[in-house]
UniProtKB/TrEMBL annotation:
FZ domain residues: 6-126
Entries under InterPro entries matching the protein: Frizzled/SFRP (IPR015526), Frizzled_dom (IPR020067), Frizzled_dom_sf (IPR036790), Netrin_domain (IPR001134), Netrin_module_non-TIMP (IPR018933), TIMP-like_OB-fold (IPR008993)
Domain of life: Eukaryota
Protein name: Secreted frizzled related protein 4
Record's keyword annotation contains Signal: no
Disulfide cross-links: C11-C72, C19-C65, C88-C112
Domain NTR stretches: 165-277
Gene name for this UniProt entry: SFRP4
MF (Gene Ontology): Wnt-protein binding
Amino acid sequence: MGSQCALGAPCEAVRIPMCRHMPWNITRMPNHLHHSTQENAVLAIEQYQELVDIGCSPVLSFFLCAMYAPICTLEFLHDPIKPCKSLCQRARDGCEPIMNRYNHSWPESLACDELPVYDRGVCISPEAIVTDLPEDAKWMDFTEDVMVQERPQDPECKHLHQNRCKCKKMKPTLATYLIKNYSYIIHAKVKGVERGSCSEVITMVEVKEVLKSSTSIPRSRVPLFTNSSCQCPPLLPNQDVLIMCYEWRSRLMLLDGCLVEKWKDQLNKRVKVCIIN
């Protein structure tokens, strides 16, 4: 059902039993083992259930889920995040001796040498997920309020907007800018906010200046899309703001974990210095 969301997202709720308790709850197919559906992935990952049960490595299930049900984020739609090489080695070193007793070796499809090294690329491990993954990866919640399609006037829809919106406040620091790797930065004035459905908010802004973008953004009114019943970060009409967020399929997104700050001239200078450096 997650693949049929308002924006046509390729993300879907994790349904693989072994992976339902991971720190992420959305995945995408095909996975790193080229399984086209989660149903196919379940059949393949189940062969390791006995190893997980005997506890040959405390990180085995995390590693397997990172391979079979990779985390889905807006920033890595075309190149999903792989588990780190060191994570693979820890899982292999703990479990391969037991596999060898039964005349099995560590499978080539899970070869550790093919995976990225933590300090030379983007990868996932239990230690890194707390601080280094994009905020939308950690917090995006594929619960009913994201996936239903009723209109706001529908009585079934009203409860979705009550007491559910808790937006995180992001600080406009250089560290935030570098870690989050926002794909667009604009100076804009908020013109209005609309609810397209229970699962989508559209914020209209008038773009005054484009400071960074991977696609062409016109100096005119453009929509920012929030694929949630909550508008995070919150914006009100007539606000003059700096917005840093992500582009997805040529759409400008407005997501929890993105940055919105009241516009100040000195902020403009700081941002330009960050971009140049």
